[in-house]
Design brief:
Blueprint lengths: L2 H29 L5 H5 L2 H25 L5
């Protein structure tokens, strides 16, 4: 498995984890359970990693074109 495929898979799985954590927080709020403060900060870790991997995936096509020497109009 090459580096780009690994980053893409990591990004996909991380997005599922982030969605599950946020959904769990909303479900507990709907039930009426008051959670600790750190529970609300839990989604920030996967969100930061999603931002980094998403920026990498966003810049990947531009970096590939730049390396090959092709110029876009």
């Amino acid at each position: 498995m090459n580096w780009n495929t690994w980053i893409r898979q990591f990004h996909r799985w991380l997005s599922m984890i982030f969605t599950a954590v946020v959904a769990a927080i909303f479900i507990t709020l709907g039930v009426g359970v008051e959670s600790a403060y750190w529970v609300y900060l839990m989604p920030l870790i996967p969100l930061g990693l999603l931002m980094l991997s998403g920026l990498y995936l966003f810049a990947l096509p531009y970096a590939t074109r730049w390396r090959s020497g092709r110029r876009t109009a």
